[in-house]
Records
---
Amino acid sequence: MRVPSYLKQVQMGSPGGGRTREEPIAVKLSEEQIAQVLKEKEIRAALGRPVKRIIRDEWGEIILEVGDLITHKAVLRARQAGVLDVLLSSVYRRKSQPSLNT
């Protein structure tokens, strides 16, 4: 269920649901924190999508076969094996279909 924007403002403590006069607090993130946030976003986008290649751990055991869907467990195993970047670069993303309206 979507929450209307005026209710979000009330939930966030804005009096009367309107704008506050206080300036928003600026949050400074380190490069490492930004990289971590971006990696987590990439992982969330990959979850539930199939892979284009076999993903193996450092002992050669298969984590995911071609076409297997990426799960939280697979991400955890890939992270532990140091092959998370390989897994994320092997996500199948459907190419956009050409428009039929010409």
Note: The radius of gyration is 21 Å.
---
Amino acid sequence: MPPLGDRRTYLPRVVAPRWVVFADFDETYLAHDGSPERRRDRRSLEQLLLEEASALGLVFGWVADGPIDVVAATVGTHGLRVVPHFIASSWGAELDFFSREEGRRPVAEWDARVAQSGFSRARVAAALDDLLRRGIPLVRREQAGRRIDSYMFQPSGRGRSPEIPSTLHKVAERHGIGVHVYPCHPALGEPEGTYDVDFVPRGVGKRQVVDFVLDRLGIPRARAMSFGDDVGDVDMLSAVEHGYLVDNATDDARRRFSRTAGASYARGILDVIERRIERIRL
């Protein structure tokens, strides 16, 4: 069964892509507070995509930190009905395209590229032991996937330790794996002052998946938009000409990237796309 289930509405097939939109999933496309206003905004965005994507040549996808199974569970919890053209999950380590005709279609070329990195649980375990010897114990999170292993780190004392991310990156590199380290997200109920630590294959990140999708579809950066809300999205926003933080972005993200959408969550995405569509129609 497709990971998002069968009873979904798929976006129309885009025969001649002219634009690509990359949207971070949690707290960018999807507002976890589930308020009526946020749901209305998301439905408005979905309606625009259903009605306009094919005519405008607009390919739309989610870029998620967590594995596809966690994305699918969140989709079910929040009752999302519309499936995007593609989902890059596990920080882009997994890439799937979706259509009504073919369902879920993993991208073989991307899978082969990621597989060459040699990612394995044994390498992650060796890195964890190495970190423990350095006084950096990690606590496992319940969202491990085929190509991601997720943990949390709580620094001792008050505040975050600026040297911790650097140490984590050095240890991961030593053991032949990649790692994404970023402050936990308060809007997702995560504790203040802690770090999310995601081990992934080397060379995998949101920027890399943007580069790959644009090359695969033959779309220039000038015809690409991206949206995010935290520091883990900044590379993705910088990878395209039209990158935006939604207005509910974290303070850490705002310190690193200045352009904002002018509205929060799906409303911010919708407003920017509509402005671009109006320019196309002129």
Note: The domain at 121-200 is CATH 3.30.70.1410 (Alpha-Beta Plaits).
---
Amino acid sequence: MTRPITAGVDGTAESLAALDWAAREAVRRELPLRVVHAWRYAEALAAADRDTQRGWVSAGVEEAVRTVSARHPGLTVTTDVVEGVAAHALAGAAAGAEMLVLGSRGHGPVVGFLLGSVGQQVIAEATRPVVLVRAGDEPAAEAAGRDVVVGQHGGPEDSEAALRFAFETAASRGAAVRAVRAWTLPPVFAYSPGSLKLLDDAGGLEPYEKQALAEALRPWRERFPEVPVAEHVEMGSAGQVLLSMTGRAQLMVVGRRARRTAVGARIGSVAHGVLHHADCPVAVVPHE
């Protein structure tokens, strides 16, 4: 089954930027584009019944679709106006998509994204990659020789989904992948005879981390031999090391493993930090 690139729109400038980004990605991957708008009936508008309000919403969506279709005349585009809670509707739309693309409001040069409760809930619930795009995102950044930057951690299986997404995206764009692995000194009590032997065999902590990154990348290098790959291993927190790469990134890819807490879903500190501070689009890819 062919999965579409799905864009969530609500008429805001950031959602229209997300729609443009999604359309370009659909063209590159030769996939259809699905445009989704989630809405709720407003009882306060007593003069307008449900059908009338739905008509207003549909007209706005169709106008946005006409604009993007004019830019990409060969692109297959479908629209869905879904009544319901936005977060649940968008997470549901993501389930059948290659990826879900959403807009996110930036505010100021320091904070890249203003991730509201809807965006955070969608990212935490979605079973497919979710891409966040800011208003003002320009396609020129995709053609400026910048890398697709991806965070890698743990063993090869821990970042498999994020690496797959990064390599597929880079291949469709003719871009390079920059794989980033951050490491910190573990507490002394975390060492065991087995782990010490692994470190000795690798020649120390940093060579061990470089070896681990190379091992995780090996199958993706073999599957995508045309994609140039740069490996970056640095001591520091994962979020800070990744954010130091945003200046050379056309897209930042991070994995996430959602955690359920008493106050709702949490998407993890690394993904949360990158989403709030990156100045390029960010793809959050759920672990498989």
Note: The first strand starts at residue 5 and ends at 8.
